[in-house]
Write a structure and sequence with these properties.
The protein has five domains: about 80 residues, no CATH class; about 140 residues, no CATH class; about 200 residues, Gyrase A, domain 2 (2-Layer Sandwich); about 375 residues, Multidrug efflux transporter AcrB transmembrane fold (Up-down Bundle), CATH 1.20.1640; about 100 residues, Alpha-Beta Plaits (2-Layer Sandwich), CATH 3.30.70. The protein is about 55% helix and about 15% strand. The chain contains 33 helices and 24 strands. It is a multi-pass membrane protein. This is Multifunctional fusion protein. One of its GO terms (molecular function) is protein-transporting ATPase activity.
Length: about 1000
């Protein structure tokens, strides 16, 4: 081998750099472990929020202290945490979300809230069409507008986009197409602004290595915050538009007569609905009737629902009871209350002075006294015909987190000159009254005005605002206002406890897989196997060194990708060693055999072809995948590159050294020396039987698919999926029945891992939009599970923060709205089709015969159909998830790559044997298959050992993924021998006849 010195130098330097980079992770982990110990010492009740606070406190205290001294350089904790291994969501916990910037709201804003009927109807039709379409929103709106307008009204009309604010870009002479082009530019600018605003907020959030990126031109922005524990805080930060307004407020005395009239009207509207109990705020001792001066039994049965069934009014019976708070409701009832208060018949009861009132909720809910949920306060805002606030947030010159005279956290704001004058006027007109500070249609504070405020200073000071909330509010105000609301259309949350469990399980499975492979290689190849094991260890070091050096994200599927490349790394050595053994059996010397084994005509041709086909499937996965799937694809491609280098060059260095020293290298042991020798199986004679067997399994699978169907995951069909852990073993069917009342229909409930852990999937309210909907569904889940979780509070039940080992809590959840679910499904379909086309073309290019491509692609279709059939037949009986989602598509494409890997090695040997023959005979093909059988079984066995280790000892979330790979490897090994090659042979015969 030439350039040995250069290869040694590169290997040593790369190895040292990898160790150097990985050392930062080691030292960062030591500091973080100390922080966890410190938090546990100071928190005795295992409260997750308090544990996180003390952990943060410790890390902040050592942030700028020296924790690593290398002599030539010194590093603080802040320095090394930026260089540590970047763990993904499933290993570290946190949140991964895709936000959709509302193009509809951008258009409405550009039109200055146009009331044009054609414009409004076109928007409505675009909303409806978007549910089942992959087109962008502007195209849908434009097509509907053109159809509805029938050339009678143009987009450039002054009542639509021919406004003063757009007069420099749009005039009445512009055609619809020209206006559309201008709108697209404005939309792109707004989305860019939204991206920058969100990035500014995230940079100040405080998590290590956050990730934010735009997804094409769709208006979607992906945000990943590994390590984030306060999930509610993150969601508010991401979805807040930062639209700050100052309003005058109606008191409870002003609106109580209307509320009583509305209560009677709602009762009339709901006259067919009955209830068995008057709903009231659990924190109050008095019932509604008590407030009205009627003495009643608190258990009195009501025969009719009304507004006060869902809302508790604050009645002012004296001057001291006058308040800006007009009512209170449970969080899950807010949607009903909103629908009642916006009902036309109810609003018709409003007196003239309340004509434009709008009802807004408090920004923060409070736990009920019995811990069964949360209550939230309601305000009545003095709006107007144009719904224009007296003072907007654009007058704020600065905002910062501060403390008031009672040492409570507040947000201090300074106004510019215009704002100072408006604020002085507003406060002078409302002395003795209340004004509300409203952010994104949520009331943060509504203080009483005691005197005129002329200095342009004011505060946001919610009653129990935390320091973090005050910091976040000042952050969003300084970062700027989003040009349009950003809705979370997809979210995945993993609690830190589940993340740590995934790390532990991954390390166990990873270590066991490595040991099994190392033991097998030494057992089978002896000293040569030991050299391959050293190369394998170097390969693992290179992979992790590369990941940490380039800030790549390591995910659970990524670890699976690394372990899969271990099998492929072994495969390269197996192919080389088998060729060397053949040469030795042919009478060549050890040196000649080694040179032949490592030559392009020997093993390298098959190795390169096999790895390129797998690499191509990795590229397809990386292009079309998202989140963890990208992580899997990245580590797969990286592993292929490093395994090729280590298997070909590092192993060669050790073998050449042994050859030069005269060391005996038989490439086997006393146990394995007679394995797979002198094999001569007539494979092609059995092809008709193989066709029948394969046809039977494919037919059975297709029948099952068309009758039983496939279990689609949330990411393909939309919905919400919760992993809930209990302090006792649970029965899935009983829980499903209990939740039927909470969700309207029984959700899908299945044991997930241990018997005290369930996966609950529901489509409840998935079509509804709004920041509060997620909370309403989560509250409904909590109330539906109340009989099983006892005294666990709603705060402890919510995801995020550390959880006790046997706590009653949500460990993780996923939400996917139907619109993006369709997009994910379509991307997955393109990924599979794209990989098949790319592989077909590559094999055609390398083998120059259509029959080879036909055989390879037929085998791939065979493998995919069999795996799909297995998942359809067994998904109801297996004790783990067998969902068809993004992870399953990743598994299918990996199976495609593996199957092709095996097939290409066999085809390469057939091509070699056929080089000196005019025709492809059955005997020649059988000889090629027999000669590669040792390699085929050896590689499949080592790969299966690795996958079985992950399957049995890895995390629950990856079992379905690994099961698909295990089935795929078994079926792929079979198909390369009994499907791909026979079909290639039959197609070749037909090709020769033509």
């Amino acid at each position: 081998m030439q350039n040995k010195g250069l290869i040694k130098l590169f290997a040593v330097l790369f190895g040292l750099v990898s160790l150097y980079q990985l050392s930062f992770t080691f030292f960062a982990n030591k500091v973080e472990d100390s922080a966890k110990e410190y938090s546990k010492e100071n928190v005795k009740d295992n409260n997750g929020r308090e544990l996180a606070r003390y952990e943060r406190k410790y890390l902040d205290s050592v942030a700028n202290k020296e924790v690593l001294n290398l002599g030539v350089a010194k590093y603080t904790y802040d320095d090394i945490r930026e260089k540590e291994m970047n763990l993904g969501l499933d290993l570290k916990g946190g949140i991964n979300a895709i936000l959709q910037v509302s193009v509809k709201d951008i258009l409405i804003g550009l039109s200055n809230n146009s009331k044009n009927t054609v414009f409004i109807e076109a928007l409505a039709k675009a909303d409806e069409a978007q549910k089942d379409s992959q087109e962008n929103y502007l195209d849908l709106f434009y097509n509907n507008f053109v159809e509805l307008s029938a050339n009678n009204v143009k987009l450039s009309d002054p009542s639509i986009f021919g406004t003063k604010s757009l007069r420099d870009k749009i005039d009445f002479n512009k055609t619809n197409e020209q206006v559309k082009s201008t709108l697209q530019e404005e939309i792109n600018t707004s989305i860019n602004t939204a991206f920058e605003v969100l990035r500014s907020r995230i940079d100040k959030f405080g998590v290590v290595q956050p990730n934010i990126q735009r997804i094409g031109t769709s208006g979607r922005i992906q945000v990943e915050l590994p390590g984030a524990k306060d999930i509610d805080r993150v969601k508010k930060l991401l979805q807040s538009t930062a639209e700050l307004q100052f309003w005058e407020v109606f008191t409870n005395a002003d609106v109580q007569n209307f509320l009583f009239a509305a209560n009677a009207k709602v009762a009339e509207l709901l006259k067919d609905d009955s209830t068995t109990e008057v709903a009231k705020d659990s924190t109050k001792a008095d019932s509604i009737d008590d407030l009205l001066g009627e003495s009643t039994d608190s258990t009195k049965v009501a025969t009719q629902k009304n507004l006060f069934t869902y809302m508790y009014p604050f009645v002012a019976q004296s001057q001291q009871q006058i308040s800006p708070l007009i009512a209170q409701a449970r969080v899950q009832d807010t949607a009903k209350v909103n629908s009642f208060l916006t009902n036309k018949e109810v609003r018709a009861l409003l007196p003239a002075n309340l004509k434009y009132v709008k009802f807004l909720w408090d920004y923060k809910a409070q736990p009920t006294a019995d811990g069964t949920g949360e209550n939230i306060n309601l305000y009545a805002i003095k709006s107007n015909r144009k719904d224009k606030a007296p003072i907007d947030g654009d007058v704020i010159a600065d905002a910062k987190q501060d403390y008031n005279e009672l040492s409570k956290p507040v947000v201090s704001m300074a106004m510019n000159g215009v704002g100072t004058k408006k604020w002085a006027k507003m406060t002078s007109e409302n002395v003795g009254k209340f004004v509300a500070v409203v952010l994104d249609d949520y009331v943060y504070t509504a203080p009483s005005v005691n005197q005129v405020i002329s200095g342009g200073q004011t505060q946001i000071s919610g009653g129990n605002m935390t320091v973090e909330e005050a910091q976040d509010i000042s952050t969003v105000l300084k970062a700027g206002k989003l040009p349009a609301p950003a809705r979370m259309i997809q979210a995945q949350v993993v609690g830190p406890s589940l993340g740590q469990e995934s790390i532990n399980a991954s390390m166990w499975s990873f270590g066991l897989a490595i040991l099994l492979v190392l033991a097998w290689m030494f057992l089978y190849y002896g000293k040569a196997g030991l050299y391959a094991n050293i190369a394998l260890a170097v390969n693992i070091l290179f992979i992790f060194g590369w990941l940490v050096s380039f800030n790549a994200v390591l995910t659970l599927p990524g670890i699976a990708g690394i372990i899969l490349t271990i099998g492929m790394s072994v495969d390269a050595n197996v192919i080389i060693f088998e060729r060397i053994k053949e040469a030795l059996r042919g009478g060549k010397s050890l040196g000649e055999a080694v040179n032949e084994g490592f030559s392009f005509k020997g093993a390298l041709s098959a190795i390169i072809d096999a790895n390129i086909t797998t690499f191509l499937t990795g590229v397809i996965l990386f292009v079309f995948g998202t989140g963890p799937i990208k992580g899997f694809a990245y580590t797969l491609m990286l592993g292929i590159a490093t395994s090729l280098f280590t298997a070909i060059f590092i192993t060669r260095l050790f073998i050449d050294r042994a050859v030069n020293r005269g060391t005996k290298l038989p490439f086997n042991t006393n146990i394995s020396k007679n394995w797979f020798n002198n094999i001569n199986i007539e494979f092609l004679k059995k092809r008709k039987l193989a066709y029948i067997i394969s046809g039977f399994f494919i037919l059975a699978g297709l029948i099952s698919i068309f009758t039983l169907g496939l279990k689609q995951g949330v990411d393909f069909k939309g919905g919400r999926s919760y992993i809930v852990r209990f302090d006792q073993p649970m029965k899935a069917n009983e829980v499903a029945s209990s939740l039927k009342g909470a969700f309207g229909t029984a959700p899908e409930v299945k044991t997930y891992g241990p018997s005290n852990q369930l996966k609950i999937t529901t489509a409840f309210k998935i079509e509804e939009e709004g920041r509060e909907v997620d909370d309403q569904v989560q509250t409904a889940l909590y109330n539906g599970l109340k009989s099983y979780i006892g005294t666990t509070s709603y705060e402890d039940f919510k995801p995020g923060f550390e959880k006790a080992e046997n706590s009653n809590a949500i460990m993780s959840y996923m939400k996917v709205e139907p619109t993006i679910a369709d997009d994910i499904k379509q991307a997955a379909l393109w990924a599979v089709l794209g990989s098949l086309i790319v592989v077909f073309l590559y094999i055609l290019l390398r083998f120059r015969k259509m029959s080879y491509s036909i055989g390879a692609v037929a085998a791939v279709f065979h493998d995919v159909l069999v795996v799909l059939g297995v998942f359809s037949i067994f998904y109801k009986v297996m004790p783990f998830d067998m969902e068809i989602g993004q992870s399953f598509i990743a598994a299918i494409l990996t199976v495609v790559g593996y199957s092709l890997n095996d097939t290409v090695v066999i085809f390469d040997r057939i091509r070699e044997y056929a080089a000196n023959s005019n025709t492809l005979t059955a005997g020649l093909v059988d000889k090629a298959l027999s000669s590669t059988l040792g390699r085929t079984i050896n590689t499949s066995l080592t790969t299966l050992l690795v996958m079985l280790a992950i399957f049995f000892f890895g995390g629950d979330s990856i079992k379905g993924f690994m099961f698909a790979l295990i089935v795929g490897v078994v079926v792929g090994t079979y198909s390369s021998l009994f499907v791909a090659t026979p079909i290639m042979f039959d197609a070749s015969k037909k090709e020769d006849k033509k």
